[in-house]
Write a structure and sequence with these properties.
The chain is α/β, with parallel strands linked by helices. The protein has twelve helices and 19 strands. A hairpin with a 6-residue loop joins strand 9 and strand 10.
Length: 463
């Protein structure tokens, strides 16, 4: 005898990227059947699809993201290790240059992972599709949504299989979840059904970067250490990252804000890396063997769709992940945010929420999840005068304090620990203003200024 609620026979998930697969996993205990529909053809190998241009670039899975995914796939850390990914306390292998120095290494006490995005997605996909009630329809275009006569409820989708000559057909469902990313057509679909589109917050950042893979020799002196070079904004605009990933490879992504993008020709790319504030990445790639072309990616703006503010919304429809909010990817928050949203949907479905109230409750909870990474990303982006969009009140004053936090992480391990917990979405940003951290930040900055003022005296004494 089925324990599934009678109104939860079939769920459809639009999009088979990470957010869609995680959503299908959390829906599987609550629905008799779950169907994932993907526009691209999906193979078994870990490769980036045509509709995933950002998947070819640098990715890291934050500690709270790995923890959330492991709750649904307990063998995921072991599977990542077996495939050659780095799975460990990454704070201990941190080589992060910023504000003129290196952040303090430490033991955070939580595990994170460095791997290619296609590898992580392939492992999640295999485990999700192994569930007996989850199926995938790929190479399929969703044309529009279907609804009941008064359009108060979405009843399914109308789709077309590109690989078959069967024309269009309708697939009925009790719930449709849009996980198609920042290019989601949910707003158009809502307009067609007679609903207002959600208000959008758009923050223009003009970020662009380029990526190349290099051979990583076993026994390399850097081992599993990972390198980041992040700018002291607004004085600097460029960033770089070099992570060890599966297949004994380095993945290197470099780029910048305000249109200061990395070239894709070999000489231009190498010169761009050489001009970063730290020589660490250039030192490696000048000796390592390149094993891929140089691939560019441009990210003009972050966008947040405020579904939580809509007063009227059809039953039977949700959006999740980048379809709600697409963050500046340089901060590495998207996968973790999607995992947390999926887990919140799971909790809602496991509770006693009334079906007509599901969307309102979910979007309200998703907004709370999104608030923190959005605040972190947008706050950093607004260090640049050219950034445009809705600017949070008091962000300039807050950014002055955060700059002091950045400087303190170079000399104070406890401030660095608090900072990394915020960046890994373990603690809220307000934790950086706790009295014990604030005191340490102020003390570290005073010491740094005093040491800097003494440098000329030391130079004269040496002379």
């Amino acid at each position: 005898m089925s324990l599934v609620h009678p109104s939860r026979q079939h769920a459809i998930v639009l999009g088979a990227s990470l957010s869609g697969l995680l959503t299908a996993r959390v829906l599987s205990p609550h629905f008799e059947r779950v169907t994932v529909i993907e526009r691209d053809s999906v193979g078994h190998e870990p490769t980036a699809r045509k509709g995933q241009p950002q998947a070819r670039h640098l990715h890291g899975l934050l500690a709270s993201g790995l923890e959330q995914m492991t709750a649904y796939f307990p063998d995921l850390p072991d599977a990542l290790r077996a495939a050659g990914a780095i799975v460990e306390d990454l704070a201990a292998g941190m080589n992060w240059y910023t504000y003129g120095g290196y952040r303090q290494r430490l033991t955070l006490g939580m595990t994170s992972s460095l791997m290619s995005r296609p590898l992580l997605e392939s492992l999640i996909r295999a485990r999700t599709l192994a569930l007996p009630n989850v199926t995938l329809i790929d190479a399929c275009t969703v044309l529009d949504l279907t609804a009941n006569p008064d359009r108060s409820r979405v009843t399914g989708v109308r789709l077309e299989r590109r690989s078959e000559h069967e024309g269009t057909r309708t697939l009925n469902a009790d719930l449709v979840v849009d996980c198609t990313g920042r290019g989601s057509r949910a707003t158009q679909w809502l307009n067609t059904l007679g609903y207002a589109a959600p208000r959008e917050s758009i923050v223009r950042v003009d970020v662009g970067y380029a990526t190349r893979l290099y051979k990583r020799v076993p026994g390399d002196a850097l081992g599993s250490a990972w390198t980041l070079v992040t700018p002291e904004a607004p004085r600097e605009t460029r960033f770089g990252g070099m992570f060890p990933i599966e297949g004994d490879r380095w993945i290197v992504s470099v780029g910048g804000w305000q249109g200061d993008h990395a070239p894709t020709d070999e000489k231009g790319f190498n010169d761009y890396v050489r001009q970063l504030p730290s020589p660490d990445i250039h030192r490696v790639i000048s000796q390592a063997e390149p094993i891929s072309e140089i691939t560019a990616f441009k990210y003009p703006f972050s966008v947040r769709r405020h579904f939580e503010a809509l007063r009227h919304f059809p039953a039977g429809l949700l959006a999740l992940g980048d379809a709600i909010c697409s963050f500046n990817p340089t901060y590495g928050q998207g996968m973790t945010s999607a995992a947390k949203q999926a887990a919140e949907l799971d909790r809602l479905l496991a509770g006693d929420v009334a079906e007509p109230d599901l969307a309102r409750q979910f979007f309200k909870r998703a907004a709370r999840i999104i608030d923190i990474p959005w605040q972190l990303a947008v706050g950093e982006d607004f260090r640049y005068p050219s950034t445009t969009g809705p600017k949070p009140f008091g962000i300039d004053l807050l950014n002055r304090y955060v700059a002091a936090v950045h400087r303190a992480t170079l000399v104070d391990v406890e401030v660095c620990r608090a900072f990394l917990k915020v960046m890994n979405l373990i603690e809220p940003p307000a934790s950086l203003m706790a009295p014990r951290i604030l005191i340490r930040v102020l003390r570290a900055n005073r010491q740094s200024k005093r040491q800097a003022s003494q440098q000329p005296d030391k130079a004269l004494a040496a002379a």
